[in-house]
Amino acid sequence: MSTPQLIDPFQRKVSYLRVSVTDRCDFRCYYCMAEEMTFLPKKELLTLEELDRMCSTFVNMGVTKLRITGGEPLVRKGIMTFFQSMSRHLKSGALKELTLTTNGSQLSRFAQPLYECGVRRVNISIDTLNAKKFGKITKRGDFAKVMAGIDAADKAGLQIKLNAVALKGTNDDELHDMVEWAGQRGFDLTWIEVMPMGDMGEADRLDQYWPLSEIRKQLKERWTVEDIPLNTGGPATYVRIKETGGRVGFITPLTHNFCESCNRVRLTCTGQLFLCLGQEDAADLRAAMRDHEGNEALIAEIKAAIARKPKGHDFDYSRQVIEGEMTRHMNHTGG
Ligand code: SAM
Ligand code: SF4
Fold this sequence. Notes:
By secondary structure, this protein is α/β, with parallel strands linked by helices. It has helices spanning 48-60, 79-92, 107-116, 131-138, 143-156, 175-185, 202-208, 212-222, 285-290, 296-306, 330-333; strands spanning 16-20, 65-69, 97-102, 121-125, 159-166, 188-193, 225-228, 236-241, 247-251, 264-267, 272-274, 282-284. Helix 1 runs parallel beside helix 2 and helix 3 (107-116) runs parallel beside helix 5 (143-156).
């Protein structure tokens, strides 16, 4: 089959697909989910076979990087079958990277099998090194289990990047501890500005907003910070901490526009293709796939969607009102 490249109207090549494989999660991080969540009925979700067909179609159309996310991807039943099946695209060379973002709770069990499927890097979300605080943020998370998961991933040979959501009044007192710990362990650490997703109260979100410019400033008070040019094609910018040798990244979706170099689209667990994290426009790929035996309709729908990928998003906190706010929860779109 030919491999048409996915080029959007702004000449950006779409080579990166993030796939949410479930909206469910064993945690309830307060910035991400409500405590009482109603999850989608099973029949709404793409089956593992459908996920395979969908991802394989994207790979055939030029996607070279797949990131599996959720919800918590590793709580999806049978998910290792999907990883095993995707590894054939790594072997063929069509796919350059298969990776995932996880809360780490299941990594003790899955780190080694993931490595065997060709996964080499993993993003693990952890906002604090304090077990009690961890319990408060995640509501149901077990800190020791996540730490054991991190150790297992390290031992399996997976390169680890930690993601921490920057939350004023919650983990701002741990900046230096986390930088030191990550540096010592040889993990990159990326700080993410809290985004206006889901239905957190407006007042809360503005209160919690800890701008990354402030983090950069605080870092310099304690560490020797060196800028490094590392363009991953993603929204993160990085610095190196001279004392630890470790890298610290910043993802600033609200204060910095990274849309010009955007090479990604997002598939939800129900087969909706979102063209931009900050826009509502989506294509229903599930219908295009379920209603037809062959992949022609699916391919046509993907091409049509890419042809309307917007130039950028509209998040803006600058006037202290939340503009461009999205109503979807992060676990649905995938972070
Ligand atoms: N459950 C997995 C995890 O936590 O890594 C994968 C899905 S989670 C939605 C992906 C990432 O989104 C996590 O790093 C999480 O911290 C981040 N996230 C969730 N809600 C967010 C929000 N409102 N603002 C910024 N980041 C958020
Ligand atoms: Fe679950 Fe990840 Fe959302 Fe936390 S951030 S509730 S771990 S999906």
